[in-house]
Amino acid sequence: MKLSLETIGLTKKFGKFTALDGVSLKVAEGEVFGYIGPNGAGKTTTIRALLGILRATSGEAKVFGKDAWRDAVEIHKRVAYVPGDVNLWANLTGGEVIDFFVGLRGKRDAPRRDGLLKAFDLDPSKKCKTYSKGNRQKVALIAAFASDADLFILDEPTSGLDPLMEQVFQELVLEQKSKGKGVFLSSHILSEVERLCDRVGIIKGGRLVETGTLAELRHLTETRMTVKTEKAAENLSEIKGVRGVVRKDGGEITFQVDSSEIGDVVSYLAKYGITKLESAPPTLEALFMRHYGETGEEGRR
Amino acid sequence: MSGNFGNTVRLVRFILRRERFISPVWIASVAFFSAALAPGIEVMFPDAESKARLLAGYENPVMTAMMGPLYGAGESTGAMYAGFMLLWTIVAAAVMNIFFIARHTRADEERGRAEVVRSLPAGRLANVNAAVLSAVIINAALAAVTGLGVFATQTESMDFTGCMLYGAVLGASGLVFAGVAAVFCQLSGSAGGAAGLSFFTLGAFYLLRAAGDLNAEILSLISPLGLAQRSRVFTGDDALPAVILLVEAAALFLLSFKLNCARDLGRGFIPERPGRSEAGKTLSSPLGLPFRLLRKTAAVWLAVMFSLGASYGLVISDIGKFVENSPEYLALIGVPAEYAKTLSGAEKTEMLTEYFVAFINAMMALIALIPLLAAAMKPRAEEKAGRAEHVLARPVSRTKYLCGFITAAFVLSWLLQCASALGLYCAAKAAPGAFALSLGELAAANLVYLPAVWAVIGAAVFLTGLLPKAAGAIWGYYGFICFMGLMGGLNLFPDRLEKLNPMTFVPKLPLEEAKAAPLAVTAAVALALFAVGLISYARRDISA
Questions:
Q1: Structural domain harbouring A175
Q2: Does B392 sit within 8 Å of A53, measured CB to CB?
Q3: What pLDDT sits at residue A299?
Q4: Is residue A301 one of the residues assigned to a domain?
Q5: Reported ipTM
Q6: On chain A, which terminus has fewer CB atoms closer than 10 Å, C or N?
Q7: Among A65-69, B155-159, B264-268, the least confident range
Q8: Which residues of B touch A54 (CB under 8 A)?
Q9: Rounded to whole angstroms, how far apart are CA atoms B510 and B513?
């Protein structure tokens, strides 16, 4: 597997504050990687270290096998970046900024630029100071997608876009993916992550707490089950992975179970004669909330 | 009323809290300079004879045009102090007020802070009103601190009433410019535009006053700068101009309230024109960005330096009669007293012209440093605004990025120096009277300051690279250089302190020979500062 980017024990300290604490992650070429975590978890710091804008305190950050700090300029020839908070030059127009950005990497591709302007419905003749947050975001997105990059590093790129524009953005990412280009996408938007990402990494308090495909991560969460048995399954709450057992009138039991333990629980229940069995798969939302919320994590570990 | 002004008091407290650093520094600086120069004037003009000679200098209309009228006919130190200082202190107070109002009205609106406040139970006018009331408080503090500071020097003929009136006129004039800025902040669509128009107005008032002082008193009364000088501080002590200034300020504030009510938040009355939808040639390389960003400022400052040079050029042919009998002026422009006595006639005029050229070149180099330092500090401003990372996340090295701004400052330094030399030359040739120096000689005397200018720019780059958080200290260093430039000739300070000022080492052309050694050393220091700045910039974090 060829890697588009890799961090090994990446640590970044600002004075006494540890923003990143030994983050190790690998993203394969052509993969769309979702980078998720609550505000202040270290997503932007990771991205800025990968771009060579911040220097790692210890550990390594590599893009295309090259050192993110030392070979920044070489790497940037193949990278397109959209920051989360797009601040532009008040007295330049959007069109000027897009052309300037694209021109820094290489040749301008006028038809592609005009197509993107149309898709995003942006007026390039307006001064940047008159743009709303969403329109500034569009300028950065158009500049990124108008350039012929191999890796797109996007830091919450759709936080100011309307749903229609969000759709345009998702199609552009899928188009790049189909061309075999890699995308490193930091995002809070569940539907976006679910639709676009092959794999997901979850960061919290500067540590990478989970990585894997969405299917793998779902596996780690709880499934909610409702069962009815002929005989009362009295020791259910003592079975490994089972929590929150509630017995209702009429013999129905509801509980949550670790997705990895479902098999054992079902075979245990089978001994009591199952008459009804319903299971609700874990939602992505539950997965996110578990990692975003403090209590969720304590509950698990 | 409460509907429009609700919660103003809270907002005033909030503004003062945000201002807890900047405004006290401004007030302290203005008060310090005002107080420090009061005894200075006494030292320069100790007796009636020296004062009378100074007065003779005022017979030249150009002097009146530049400085305004000198009331009290040079009879007391207080009279001279008011004649020399009031106008320039007011200009400083005007700059402070324009920035203050722009910061707390338009800039807040631009950054979306004003609408957060507006969405709270605060009145429609609470933002503007709070900024205005805060300006009143800050100008009152400026008036009190400056008045008391000057009084504390216990200088002859400067009594308590006079000192407090001096402060009051200063504060009242400051408020007028706060009013001017408040109006332009409603008219223009951006804080930068509003500040620009306000500075333009300040310049226009200065010229109006100059014209008025020469031959039409009424024009001087229209200009707040001229009106302020007519309070005859330390000679007649007339409080009426200060009262009129306060009324003018109040009228401007009311106008700004009216305009504020008539417009939408975030909009101005001067419409924003659409620009080109594709980048031109300038923006086709990373080097182009600094040039594009500094284009407008550069154009304005080139015009300023040219007119400054020209205004000195108009006086220069008269300079002989103007200063030859005044040891004080001779001392001011650096002519040794014994040397002056050994010459006479045309030779003396020529010598004095040369001294004057050397003196004003030093002044103009200091003024040209303002836009140059702003250009050198631009990368840090870009970094803080999160715009540097757009460029640095693309295949542009840190060194190349920073070099772009250094190059822009370097080119601008040549242009500014040439502009002032050219202005001086053209005006001197156009004015009646002989002027012996050639354009080449003038240019050389002017360009000889470049290595020292680069060293100061180098200091800014050095700080940007090595101590980005403290890079603003460059303006403190600039203040130090100006102070040494004004007071350094008096030999009041230890040598070691003088050596921290690169201007000290500049050969005073056309008086002295152009010595290569000090120029080369200064240029080498500049180069070393650039190098250290560039290397450390490439090795540090870019912070948002």
A1: 3-217
A2: yes
A3: 33
A4: no
A5: 0.78
A6: C
A7: B264-268
A8: 541-542
A9: 7
